[in-house]
Design brief:
It contains five helices and five strands; from the N terminus they run E-H-H-E-H-E-H-E-E-H. With 152 residues, the chain is an alpha/beta fold. It has a single domain, classed as Dehydroquinase, class II (Rossmann fold). Bound molecules: 1,3,4-trihydroxy-5-OXO-cyclohexanecarboxylic acid. 1,3,4-trihydroxy-5-OXO-cyclohexanecarboxylic acid binds next to loops.
């Protein structure tokens, strides 16, 4: 039996604080709740999930590098590094693995410095404003992309 394609779900700084961090913006679910949702949904799509979080930009760069040739897709919520990190953009471009950008909040309704995303330049698309459901939508989008590329 062939192995399920791996989706690497990467979470950036302060997302470990979900549940207690500005719940009016980010909701009451913890990151571990979101991980459970992702694992359950990925299972229904025939995908395997690696779920990680770091407050460090370097960890995120290393994890993105490690997806090359190994993972079938990336879901990334880079947190505040979204708006600052050329290093994460470069890592995503080098990985050549399809990536979907996720944000819990609608970054376009927030401070103007959150309107720009470096990640967006390397992502297939962005989902923002749907809370944790954004991760589910991202998995659906990747499942479709992966299926499409294997049929090509
Ligand atoms: C976020 C939006 C970012 O602007 C912010 O820095 C975060 C969370 C989101 O999921 O809505 O840390 O990525």
């Amino acid at each position: 039996m062939s192995q399920a394609p791996i989706i690497s779900i990467l979470n950036g700084p302060n997302l470990n604080m979900l549940g207690t961090r500005q719940p009016e913006l980010y909701g009451r679910e913890t990151l571990s709740d979101i991980e459970k949702l992702c694992r359950a949904h990925a299972g229904t799509l025939g995908l395997a999930v690696e779920f990680r979080q770091s407050n460090s930009e370097g960890d995120l760069v290393t994890w993105i590098q490690e997806t090359r040739g190994r993972a079938a897709g990336i879901v990334i919520n880079a947190g505040a590094y979204t708006h600052t990190s050329v290093a994460i953009l470069d890592a995503l471009l080098a990985a050549e693995v399809p990536a979907v950008e996720v944000h819990l909040s609608n970054i376009h309704q927030r401070d103007s410095f959150r309107h720009h995303s470096y990640v967006a330049k390397a992502a297939k698309g962005m989902i923002c404003g749907f809370g944790s459901h954004g991760y589910i939508l991202a998995l659906d989008a990747l499942a479709r992309l992966i299926k499409g590329s294997s049929e090509a």
